[in-house]
Amino acid sequence: MEAEIMGGEVSNWNDDRLDELNRRVDDGFVRVDERFMRLEGEMKEGFATADRKMNEGFAELRAELRQMNDKFDRRFDRMDEDLSGLRHALMVDLSGLRHALMVAGLSFGISTFAALGGLLVTQA
After folding, report:
1. For residues 59 and 117, what is the distance between their CA atoms, to the nearest angstrom?
2. For residues 84 and 79, what is the distance between their CA atoms, to the nearest angstrom?
3. Which of 26, 73, 100, 104 has its CA 20 to 30 A from that of 56?
4. Displacement of CA 72 from its chain's centroid (Å)
5. What distance in Å separates the CA atoms of residue 117 and residue 115, rounded to the nearest whole number?
């Protein structure tokens, strides 16, 4: 009989202990769920902050690149203008040089022929 009483007590004790364990496990999962919800909120806030900072940084970078592009465009435009001016000046100078060479060559040719003609006249 003692065994039956002890057996019943042990069985009740185990059931009570199991019920308590179940309650504690359930309470633990509730706390874990709360922690995950809090962590999920913190992560969403953190990612939103990171996205905002990255977007601001990219906007600043785009603005700086636009400024650099404008600066290079202005420099290339100036260089193009300078080279166009130089090309024009060279064309004028070369045209003048060609004209001068033609005049010099023509006068050289005339004086050469005259000298040769004089030699021929004196030789005859």
Report:
1. 84
2. 8
3. 73
4. 16
5. 5
What is d(CA 102, CA 98) in angstroms, rounded to the nearest whole number?
6
Q: How far apart are the C-alpha atoms of 63 and 61, rounded to whole Å?
A: 5
* Single-letter residue type at 78: R
DSSP one-letter code for 1: -
Q: Tell me, what's the pLDDT at 9?
A: 55
Dihedral in degrees, nearest 10, Cα atoms 22, 28, 33, 39: -170
Task: Encode pLDDT of 43-78 as tens digits.
Answer: 999 999 999 999 999 999 999 999 999 999 999 999
Q: d(Cα 108, Cα 114) in Å, to the nearest integer? A: 10
Q: Residue 88 and residue 72: Cα distance in Å, rounded?
A: 24
**For the chain, what's the residue count?**
124
Residue in the block written with tokens 């090309």: 87
Amino acid at 50: A
Structure token digits, residue 79: 């260089």
